[in-house]
Amino acid sequence: MKGLGELERTVMEVLWAREDAGSGAATARDVSRALAGDRDLAHTTVMTVLDRLAKKGFLDRERDGRAWRYRPVESREGYIAELMLGALNETGDRDAALVHFVRSVSSDEIDVLRQALDGVTGKEPPA
């Protein structure tokens, strides 16, 4: 999955926040209103960005009268995981990259990784 440009990321953050809040799909007008306090964007610009994100596969859209309603295809966490996997695929030595990554995270993050690995492998966490 490709990265997002700055404006695309800003629009996706609005849509991910709506999903997190349980608000569901959004129209271009909803996104424009959400961005109004932070960015001075023309409504047509927001519509164009949403259309491009849908064409790139980041958003699903459905007709609602004359408007489109947009919703993220992937969660924020899923998107970041795809970016991480893409970066890992760019290295010539995945094992070395993983070791370097693990050495750079905090002990709390190591615990999260250990729990996730235990869940994937079906191992019981130590008592």
How would you briefly describe this protein structure?
The protein is mainly α and 127 residues long. It contains six helices and two strands, in the order H-H-H-E-E-H-H-H.
Describe the structure.
With 127 residues, this protein is mainly alpha-helical. Helix content is 61%, strand content 9%. It is built from six helices and two strands. The chain has helices at 6-20, 28-35, 43-55, 76-90, 94-104, 107-121, and strands spanning 59-64, 67-72. A two-stranded antiparallel sheet has the order 1-2. Strand 1 and strand 2 form a beta hairpin. Helix 2 (28-35) crosses helix 3. The longest helix is centred in the first third of the chain and has 15 residues, at 6-20. The radius of gyration is 19 Å and the shape is elongated. The model has no long low-confidence stretch (mean pLDDT 91).
Number of DSSP strand runs: 2
Low-confidence stretches: none
Classify the secondary structure makeup into a structural class: mainly alpha
Radius of gyration: 19 Å
- C-alpha geometry: elongated
Helical fraction: 55-70%
Provide the β-strand percentage band: 5-15%
Strand order of the largest sheet: 1-2
Largest sheet: 2 strands, antiparallel
The chain-level mean pLDDT equals: 91
- The H-and-E topology, N to C, reads as HHHEEHHH
Key traits:
127 residues; two-stranded antiparallel sheet
